[in-house]
């Protein structure tokens, strides 16, 4: 495993630990941060989807050009297709959104007030 991936994995683990700590110790202040993080993730997700749709549209445009040389058409499609972003990014962002929702819910199930017994 390359050193960069190990470093990024450690950095990600530290960031998630810090976020979880903030959400646990300061749940109401975390909500301000949560909105910003959600907005960033949604923008990234939207950008990836728009990018991949534009790559698909470029491939369709190449097909509609009706190039007589099939080998050239396949080369052009391969070049355009190489610009497609992996679906893994969308999955990772979706999982991040789920995790943010989970730690956003801390006040509802950790700070629930108990009803006094009568």
Topology:
Blueprint: H1 3-25, H2 27-64, H3 70-81, H4 87-104, H5 106-110
Helix pairs in contact: 1-2, 2-3, 2-4
Kindly describe this structure.
This protein is an all-alpha fold and 118 residues long. It has one domain (3-108). 81% of the residues lie in helices and 0% in strands. It has five helices and no strands. Helix 1 (3-25) crosses helix 2 (27-64), helix 2 (27-64) runs antiparallel to helix 3 (70-81) and helix 2 (27-64) runs antiparallel to helix 4. It is elongated. The model has no long low-confidence stretch (mean pLDDT 85).
**Structural class, judged by helices and strands?**
mainly alpha
Can you tell me the residue ranges where pLDDT is under 50 for at least 5 consecutive residues? none
The count of domains is: 1
Q: What's the alpha carbon Rg, rounded to whole Å?
A: 22 Å
C-alpha end-to-end distance: 60 Å
Q: Give the helix tally.
A: 5
Describe the structure concisely for a colleague.
It contains five helices and no strands. With 118 residues, it is mainly alpha-helical. It has one domain (3-108).
Structure characteristics:
118 residues, mainly alpha, 5 helices, elongated
């Amino acid at each position: 495993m390359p050193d960069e991936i190990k470093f990024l994995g450690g950095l990600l683990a530290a960031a998630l630990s810090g976020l979880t700590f903030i959400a646990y110790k300061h749940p109401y202040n975390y909500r301000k941060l949560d909105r910003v993080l959600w907005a960033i993730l949604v923008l990234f997700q939207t950008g990836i989807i728009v990018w991949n749709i534009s790559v698909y549209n470029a491939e369709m445009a190449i097909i509609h050009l009706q190039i007589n040389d099939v080998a050239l058409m396949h080369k052009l499609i391969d070049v355009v297709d190489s610009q497609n972003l992996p679906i893994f990014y969308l999955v990772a962002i979706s999982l991040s959104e789920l995790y943010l929702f989970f730690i956003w819910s801390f006040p509802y199930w950790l700070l629930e007030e108990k009803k006094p017994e009568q």
